[in-house]
Write a structure and sequence with these properties.
about 170 residues, five-stranded mixed sheet, 2 helices, 9 strands
């Protein structure tokens, strides 16, 4: 079994930052194991949304996988408040049968002023756009009207606007 873990950006803003984690699973066909659980350990101050694929998750945030079909997992990572800057690791562990497979990827949390050295993995961004992962709008049964606020795109003239233009994923 092999895991490939990639980030869309090598660095992430330490305050209100966002990144995507692309995990690909290459199962060993001869093992005959089809069920697995995935755990993702994040540095302090970095959080994740439920997996963007919609796979079921346990209460402990372990993702349940069927290795005959579920071969890639997408996770959106984010920071909320100010998180200490520095080099950190993200560990992805796949539990399958009696075996466990671990892959570690490094990420650097930086102040927004230090985003000049950002490297964007174009293959990750291209694949994310190809998937067009839907974001469901919650339906309200009590009301017959649904109000959807328009998207506000502010690709202003700040020195990091080029990053938003390049990295933005519209759903």
């Amino acid at each position: 079994m092999k895991l490939d873990v990639r980030l869309s950006k090598n660095i992430m803003e330490n305050e209100e930052g966002m990144n995507h984690l692309w995990i690909r699973i290459f199962p060993d066909e001869a093992s005959g194991i089809h069920k697995a659980e995935m755990d993702i350990q994040l540095p302090a101050g970095v959080y994740r949304s439920p997996n963007l694929n919609g796979y079921p998750e346990k209460e402990a945030n372990r993702i349940l996988l069927d290795l005959s079909t579920d071969l890639e997992v997408w996770i959106e990572l984010y920071t909320q408040g100010e998180t200490p800057c520095g080099e950190e690791t993200i560990a992805v562990t796949l539990y399958s049968g009696d075996s466990e497979y671990v892959k570690v990827v490094r990420i650097r949390l930086v102040n927004v002023d230090d985003m000049d050295s950002v490297e964007i993995d174009e293959q990750v961004i291209k694949r994310l756009k190809e998937l067009g992962i839907p974001h469901d709008i919650p339906h309200q049964k009590e009301s017959e009207f649904v109000i959807i606020e328009p998207k506000v795109l502010d690709m202003g003239s700040n020195k990091y606007a080029y990053l938003e233009k390049k990295y933005r994923v519209d759903y």
